[in-house]
Fold:
Amino acid sequence: MKSEEVDVSGTEFDVVIVGAGFAGMQMLYRVRELGLRARVFEAGGDVGGTWYWNRYPGARCDVESVEYSYQFSPELQQEWEWTERYATQPEILRYANHVADRFDLRRHIQFDTRVSALVYDETSDRWTVRAATGGEVLARFVIMASGCLSSANLPGFAGMETFAGEVYHTGRWPHEGVDLSGKRVGVVGTGSSGVQAVPVIAEQAGALYVFQRTAAYTLPAGNHPLDPGEQAAIKADYVGFRAQMSLRQSAGNWRVPPNPASIFDATPSEREAEFEARWARGGPGVLGAYADIMVDQEANGFAAEFVRGKIREIVKDPEVAALLSPDQIIGCKRICLDTGYYEAFNRPHVHLVDVATAPIERLTPRGIRTAVDEYELDVIVFATGFDAMTGALLSVDIRGRGGLSLREKWLSGPRTYLGLGVPGFPNLFTVTGPGSPSVLTNMMVSIHHHVNWIGDCLKYLQDHRIASIEASADAEVAWVEHVNEVADKTLYPSCNSWYLGANIPGKTRVFMPLLGFPAYVQRCATVAANGYEGFDLAGDRRSDAGGN
Ligand code: N01
Structure:
């Protein structure tokens, strides 16, 4: 490890990384390997990103733990033992802390420091990085590792301040925990966070009201303790396992591989058997039961109806079952995985409130008032999601060439080249940015890919005495077109998902991530092999270059 040799003091760095979640930590490790002087700024009090903030009851990953882990260190990969098929938030946070300790990362990270502004100076070819709390440093390169689902979306209901009880957002859960025992709890939102939280809160609360605007499709996670033999088998060829997974469109889901066949070539009984088998295995496999589910509405309808049938089987009250049954395209909004979500509604103290037909009008001192009723509550939990993909990036006032504001440039939706660079913003990289597969994949794999691509790029710049790299305007135009073309061939843009920014009032609807991990990896490799085509490279600053 080279960290002993690196000076971490000072106010000028080769690289500033924003965020110390899984992306920021791996990026730090990589740039340190290159001998670059780096500083990470992290708004939270410790490492972990998503897993530092999202401590709500029931929080766990919906990607299997053997996949949702780092692959940059073979030793780490071998020594860490996961205990469950899907790791809980505390276990993942322990893992993040272990990585920070094992690779001595913390001394390069400044915690409790939210970056508020990034300003590029053309004369010096430097970024000024400003903290919300005051203070600034200079950097040649800035790498945004600020997360895709990290900017919490708290709805602006009237009367928020008047509610006399406690209010929480799942993505900002108090570290000391919240005692919900015996209380009247309202959960607003039924996406992945709400679906995970509801069954666990139901165990504690005296009464639970779930305020549902759109019914979610959720599949059983099928969580269980990890069989040591199974984990050992994967570890015996972890490299091969990772390579196999990276050939999948979503870069994962090892236990439930996608079926390349068309649903229209299957008989009704074959179809049922395929769906049943995948439901029983747990995980998102129902969506991958046939190749046309996400591209053909009729095919999608078979999968959707299968899940609705399961809801009718599980939920005893037919009216509640009907209300819990979604009617949109399955998989269009991100599929949820649950442990006992539908079952929770069979409990007498769990109530489903339809806020699609009778919307929430306001919070009152006593609770939530909808168009038809008032619900008296002690605690309100907002599981209302995030300003996805662009929220964290645009929470920073980023000014590029000529004072160009990223917020203004992206008013009509994010525009990038490869989801890695933006014209007008030299030497600024975005890890898993809009226009890359990111949230449509196992994030750990996408992070690994981007960190290595950016690391290789920085090395190339060093080796070729290049001071500056900037995505070209033409490359951006062609890339945005490509991302839209790919999405338009599918059913993904057909609903009000956060992939489109449709969950945030006023946000322009643009399908932000790119479908298809393997083709994207190929494209990035070609770009690099061709001397970073589509990027403008400039300047000879070898004398300034930091490190060795
Ligand atoms: O957020 P969401 P999330 N009035 O946006 C409702 C990842 N994640 O935090 O659909 C009433 O999905 C909203 O209703 P509607 C994962 O990628 C992963 O649950 O807009 N309701 C919806 O029901 C996931 O997809 C894990 O009509 C309002 C809910 O709030 C992503 O994070 C766990 C409302 C928001 O659902 C986001 O999931 C958790 C309003 N004004 C999260 N505003 C795992 O790994 C919003 N809603 C398991």
Summary: Residues 1-7, 542-548 have pLDDT under 50 and may be disordered. The two ends are 14 Å apart (CA to CA). The longest strand covers residues 136-144. The CA atoms of residues 425 and 495 lie 32 Å apart.
